[in-house]
Amino acid sequence: MAVAPSTLSQNTRALWRRRIVQGLVTVVLLAFTLVVIVPFIWMVILSLRTTGGILNDPYGLPIPPRWQNYTKLLFDPQYHFYQYFLNSVIASVGAVGLETAIATMAGYGFGRPRYDFKLRGALLAFLLAALMLPRQITYIPQFVMMSRYGLIGTRWALVLLYAAGALPFSVYLMSTYFSQLPSEFEDAARIDGCSDFGMFWRVMLPLATPAISTVVLLNFMGHWNELLLAITMTPDPALRTLPAQIWYFIGEHGVDYGLAATSLTVAAVPILILYLFMSERFVEVLTAGGVKG
Asked: What is the CATH number of domain 76-288?
């Protein structure tokens, strides 16, 4: 059967429109990628140069590369960089573990219709209202509270405050994800004799691994890069986290740009590794938004 010339012309125009739109989207995405990745590449280049070379030619190439910056930062006992790295790991991992455990259980209770307890909506609304509060207005009350409990100058102050600050978003994300899971899973688990906790632990929690991965990734990145709480709650230099120690590379009488860029590059490695392991789950939550029943 012959196709009318007008139909072929319309199909050709539609095909060209799609190609033009795809080309424009590709150009925009490439431009955005360059905007994001160029500063990181520049930071890596600066980490392989001396401060004097950077001041003489900020955009020059590291010829030859100065790997001594990395050996000096990681192994010179003057800097104790490994200690600050360990402090960041303890504070970030401890907070992520605590908030993830609480958020998954709270999100399950808020997200599943079968748990329609009294004041459920009011409690969730009260929790989400914390998302509208600027983080800066909570610093003074938090400092006073930690001071009264004797936690100033301890890692527990960072772990507890990091976890508390991330809970509203984490609970909201987990409750939204749990609310979209089909109820047939719960019915099947109930028929098999599972208790409420067994149903949560064995059935629903494994199904929520994409949302859990997203909570872990976003919160770990926020805790790892946090500065203000780190410098106010842990005045002891031995308990500084990486952002606090990197901030001290910018001194009153000078700046060591080479070591500052090196420390920033090393500090970015854990985030990159974590994202590589969890990127698929993270993208799944952002694109799908749930599980289709």
From this structure: 1.10.3720.10
